[in-house]
Amino acid sequence: MSIVTRFAPSPTGRLHVGNVRTALINWLLARRNDGRFLLRLDDTDRERSSDAHVAAIRDDLAWLGLHPDGEVRQSARTALYDAAFKRLVDAGRIYPAYETPDELGLKRKVQASRGLPPVYDRAALDLTDADRAAFEAEGRRPHWRFRLDTDAAISWHDLVRGSAHIDPAAQSDPVVRRADGSYLYMLPSTVDDIDMGITHVVRGEDHVTNSGVQLQLFAALGAAPPAFAHLPLLADADGGKLSKRLESFDMGTLRDLDVEPQTVAALLARIGTSRPVEPVASVDALIDGFDFGNFGRAQARVDAEDFTALNAKVTHLLPYDAVAARLPSGMDAEAWTAIRPNLTRVSDAEDWWAMIAGDVESMVLPQDRDFINEAGGLLAELDWSDDIWRRWTTQLKVRTGRKGKALFMPLRGALTGRDNGPEMAALLPLIGRERAIHRLTG
Prior knowledge:
Elements: E1 4-7, H1 17-32, E2 36-41, H2 51-64, E3 70-73, H3 78-90, E4 94-97, H4 101-113, H5 129-137, E5 143-146, E6 154-158, E7 162-166, E8 175-177, H6 186-195, E9 200-204, H7 208-220, E10 227-231, E11 234-235, H8 251-256, H9 261-270, E12 300-301, H10 304-315, H11 320-323, H12 333-339, H13 349-357, H14 369-381, H15 388-400, H16 405-416, H17 424-431, H18 433-441
Parallel strand pairs: 1-2, 2-3, 9-10, 11-12
Antiparallel strand pairs: 4-5, 5-8, 6-7
């Protein structure tokens, strides 16, 4: 069986790390098994969905390297949902209900006062044709519910949680279509999974109850269900639930902060698993070894500092060709290799390049002035070659008797205006002969 997975975001905002984790795990599962990864845009919320958000989702996935093998939009698939809806109505599994939101709210209050769970009482099943006609005459239009089979628990094997079940008797018959004719999540999602040939549904553990209900929908539509894997939800540093409203974990914000896509993928692929979070130069490096057996059930927390620390390590792995278009004009592979170990993010290269190729304010202590003047004079006498730093400092050591920090730190300060940074043996050739002599003697 070829594995087919799907990522099904609602285009009502930018993706956050919780969404991306779901997309990434679906992508890894498909790629690990030579399967297909599909994008389904759940855009049935007409008021909140927008083409701008659709474009942003596509762009974010492409930025992460998670390229779908196909895409569908629920807004274009209403005919499929209507056909399935009719089949289930004809089979007696979907029925009309006429309670208003206020009436349903009152029922829940009464149940709460009696210590009962807020489960719909199925009063609509007792309506006669005359009752329904009377409601229609009042101008009421029905919403439609899927009638759950409550005779036995719904059980399945979850790829993350292990043995899973829900008690359908403890659930309200879910509303699958509103009075205005629009569909809610449950039915379209099931119909799409059948039509798209989805073999594995990977999503957050907040969908466990939905999965139990959808198992009955699959059966009612005569289809074999997919395998389910429910991931523990991510939390922020304080244990709060992540949402699209937490801008610090929004993909747009992370991209603006110059966080690498490999950083996001490396962190989200391993967080909450038994495997260590490690930097990778490509998202493809995460495919081998992917296994649901590595996932735990404990909630994993995400902190902004996690991205910062890992991003530095990822940046240190990036080859010049992968970042060349984002580097300052004139900066070549040699310069990138020299400064890369000192970067937290790629955009920091601009500051280091300005130090190499621009003007700097030399940092020379009064007691080191004579030493720096002598160093400048010696440098002017030497032939310039790639090992200039070694030859220069070796002769300076002999001439002045300085060694260790007393030798190297004043030279760094005079040449770079800083007391730390990349190896001077790599920096000096980049600074160049004339510029270096000027900084020492100018």
